[in-house]
Design goal:
Length: about 80
């Protein structure tokens, strides 16, 4: 999520490289985030090659912010 928060969109291969995950592992994580409504997906063709990009939704951005706030409170002992 942090990658999608700081980038407007990121394609599958870039996420895979940044996170050092296999195709299958990344796909299952992305599917779970999509089912929660935290990310959106755009599928298109560049030339004849399929390209899938992902973006953080408003719901995902809010959930991520709440998560960071909870971590900060935990670390501060609140």
């Amino acid at each position: 999520m942090s990658i999608l928060i700081v980038n407007e969109t990121v394609d599958f291969n870039r996420l895979k490289d940044l996170l050092s995950l296999t195709d299958g592992n990344l796909a299952s994580h992305l599917k779970a985030l999509e089912e929660l409504g935290y990310i959106g997906v755009n599928k298109q063709f560049i030339g004849r090659k399929p390209n899938t990009t992902y973006f953080a939704t408003t719901v995902g951005k809010t959930a991520f912010t709440l998560h960071l706030d909870a971590l900060e409170s935990f670390l501060k002992g609140k």
